[in-house]
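Subject: two folds for Thursday's group meeting

Dear M.,

Sorry for the delay on this. The cluster queue was jammed most of the week, so I only got both jobs back this morning. I'm pasting them in the order they finished. Each block is the input sequence followed by the predicted structure tokens. Could you check whether the formatting survives your parser before we put anything on slides? The first protein is the one we discussed after the seminar.
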Amino acid sequence: MQRRPASRLGVNGPEEVKQHPWLKGFDWRNLLNKEMKAPFIPSKREENYNSNLKNYNASDEDSPKDRTQLLKMEDVQNFFSGYHFSRERKTVNQTYIPTKTTER
């Protein structure tokens, strides 16, 4: 992890990332052609499996209305239980309990 963007891997283009030793032997052509097998397929028996999303289509992402409807689903909202977003502090805290309310 590099804090300065100018020092990050890929700042000189995608070839820099492709040539990194950690990715040596990676089949970029297979990825581009969408022929790769998923390294992990979640089990339908797991607690966090949501059968309501099984018919989700990536093209739905083009519609803000569809995204809004998806986010309103109770099952999706349950993923965020226990989290609080503070606009003032611009942070996300787990089980955050505000100690003082300030008005501006």
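Second protein, same layout:
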Amino acid sequence: MLVALHLVFGQSHDWGIRSIGWFLELSELDAFIASSFGSQQKVASQVEPVSNFLILAAYELSKATSMALNRQEQKAKERQTCSNGPADV
């Protein structure tokens, strides 16, 4: 979850480390995840080098999932058309 926060807030929307810490405090997640600037700076330094890879992988996964769902919908439509028999023209 913390990596996702840094990818979405820090990398994609450039909200910055302080905003990530503030979000953790407001959501009361700071009881489980350190929200200090120093701890979030350390996480950001580890996330940043792999962020492009992670974003690209997430995009590719989303695209593949969408294509698979479209194929399933198309097959369902074909099955429905076949079970209804040929249409009279």
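Two things I noticed about the second structure. The chain is about 80% helix and 0% strand. Residues 2-80 form one domain.

Cheers,
T.
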